[in-house]
């Protein structure tokens, strides 16, 4: 069942020297970690208030509304769903659960979640501290050349000894085999394809003049057009990955709001 949407949050990437940001009295997360953890996609209940650094030459960034979330949007986006769920667990001071959920998001090529896993292993947040594993996750998160993640990876490497460096390379080979883009992107794309075809009832995923109706608060029906729900940058793999590159390649995103998420099962290996 869908949960209530998270409020708007400012995504930021301050310098490493600015100390820690305490999400509550029991779990402290460094500012860069918080920046990495916050969500990828822009959304707002009011289009006039939606702002984002993802605005581009191709038009405004895609939006995920509360109605889209209610209609099951996150079933097709387990990368976003598990990252949101992991952030909630951090807010609840349950980093051990959060790290498992970031790992589930990482299974679907979610680079911010992979970067979060790196930082949590580096700091020993919710897991035993392991700098070799941290570097391996960080290297994986930087696979697409996004500047913030490249900088973190190089900072980790500079602080490691030769023993940890050698082991990091071994661990990295294992992670790339299961979580690297060559396999993880395909895993995500299969989910997108399956969910789109299942919802439209068409082998081609054609949406035509579709209208989607879902029950809202108080039993009042909400309606959304197929064009709004199936925005190309959220459903077509090439456009989806390109949008992520625009959003993250030069740093962290701006202001974001997210709808509710649903739970799904996962069977990925632990690391």
Explain what the structure shows.
The chain has 271 residues and is mainly α. It has one domain (9-256). The protein is built from twelve helices and six strands. It has helices at residues 31-37, 66-70, 78-91, 95-106, 111-123, 131-141, 147-159, 162-179, 181-200, 226-229, 232-235, 237-248, and strands at 9-10, 21-22, 28-29, 211-215, 221-225, 255-256. The strands form three sheets. The chain has a two-stranded antiparallel sheet. Strands 2-3 form a two-stranded antiparallel sheet. It has a two-stranded antiparallel sheet with strand order 4-5. The longest helix has 20 residues, at 181-200. The protein is elongated, with a radius of gyration of 18 Å. The chain starts with 8 loop residues before the first strand and ends in a 15-residue tail after the last strand.
How would you briefly describe this protein structure?
It is built from twelve helices and six strands. With 271 residues, it is mainly alpha-helical.
Which SSEs are present, and which pair or pack?
Elements: E1 9-10, E2 21-22, E3 28-29, H1 31-37, H2 66-70, H3 78-91, H4 95-106, H5 111-123, H6 131-141, H7 147-159, H8 162-179, H9 181-200, E4 211-215, E5 221-225, H10 226-229, H11 232-235, H12 237-248, E6 255-256
Antiparallel strand pairs: 1-6, 2-3, 4-5
Helix pairs in contact: 1-5, 3-4, 4-5, 5-6, 6-7, 6-8, 8-9
